Amino acid sequence: MLIASSLYPCVAVACLGLAYLPSAYAWGAAGHEIIATIAQIHLEPDVLPVLCDILDPPSNPSSQDPNDSAHLSASRPPCHLAPIAAWADKVRRTPGYGNTAPLHYVGALDDSPSSSCVFPGSRGWAGRRDNNVLAAVTNKTRALFGALGSDAEEAAEALKFLVHFVGDMHMPLHLTGKERGGNGARVTFDGRVTNLHTVWDSLLIAHALRIVPSNYTLPLEDAAGVEVHLRGAIYDPYVRRIMHEGFGAGVGPSEGAGRFEDDRWLSCPTEEERAAARRAKRSAVWDVIVSMLRFIRGWLGLGYGDNAGTMPSLGQVLERWWHTTGDEERWDSDGLCPYAWAREIHELNCAFPVWPPELDEHPSALLSELAEEHGCSCSDEAHDEHHLNTAAEHDDMHANSSGTPRPHPDLLELDTPRYAGRIRKRWLVERLLAMAGIRLAGILNALVAGDESAHLSTSL
């Protein structure tokens, strides 16, 4: 646990606390289920029955009347995607699925919001190559397409992972490794100690659910295509609001409300744009090679001696080449481009910023700072696997009988007009949830029914 510096040893501060802390995941279960519900609303009519058959194969497929399935899908969906949306979080610590933990996030070694956002920068990605959420979205899409109509069990698992990973990819803090995606950054929210990751995965959505206008507790008029896919969940009014104010004709009081630019959300860079990106990366590698040659010329007395600097090692050249070539080529195509989509979302960590600049002015709030101060280290592999709870949070829960949290002036409060207020005013969380739902629906429509399915299969 994280406890004030001078009174407790390293073990109490950070290291052993990771062994027994409760979990925190991207968007929380509610966020993932909201994304899946929005995606289901936007599926083509013939797609959902196919997905439901994958998740719960019929005992006698040959006896099924396709017309019955179409009618059932129009009047009452044969299943809901929301219940499977958080499955990948539930199994990640069970036998056989431990290796999936790194697939929920991606982090660049040079990335350090809010001062510097690079994706990935010259040193590339942390962790093993292609062992991250961007590669996982492409790989699970491929796996689902390959298993359609042949291996129901493999298809079902790929579908459950894909529904979840598309959601993870749209949570900005799952795209940075700094302080384990914000899990190691202590803050307060409404006076209570938590961490930046939890603010984004749970607390902002929980607040949004509480302030939904009462008219959204009732079914929307002329919105049967929305209502049929709701299942009486606590977040149904929130989904109605997103669908009405975000996709419909109604405009709410929020600056970000109104019709979303959903026609742009499914677009990917053209081949010409990807070729230009490849040329820029080759240029970056060439710059390192030129620096090496200039150093050699100076060392041999052939000129440039005063400006030769430090010679880059062959390892640096290879590292630059390895980490800055081919990622988009492996992950992105004309119809599916998780890297391009995530790059814009990652920019929010600095541009909004999701990562408050003031947080770096509170070193006592950062796990890495305290761990370094006490001479211990904790594995970066955890990222979002652990909700880095603190003794202060425990104190808050037992502060007094009235439930009033103890003051923590050393920590940054985020439930303020300047931070949480701007997020709500701009409808930032709602836009990200909707964007994830639209993209998930686009992928599933293309795989199962759309004209893009043939193109998607070849491009993958």
Automatic annotation (TrEMBL):
One of its GO terms (biological process) is DNA catabolic process. Residues 1-26 form the signal peptide. Residues 394-413 are annotated as: Disordered. InterPro entries: PLipase_C/P1_nuclease_dom_sf, S1/P1nuclease. The keyword Translocase does not apply. The keyword Glycoprotein applies. GO terms for molecular function: endonuclease activity; hydrolase activity, acting on ester bonds; metal ion binding; nucleic acid binding. Keywords: Disulfide bond, Endonuclease, Glycoprotein, Hydrolase, Metal-binding, Nuclease, Signal. Belongs to the nuclease type I family. This is Phospholipase C/P1 nuclease. It comes from Wolfiporia cocos (strain MD-104) (Brown rot fungus). The lineage of its organism: Eukaryota, Fungi, Dikarya, Basidiomycota, Agaricomycotina.
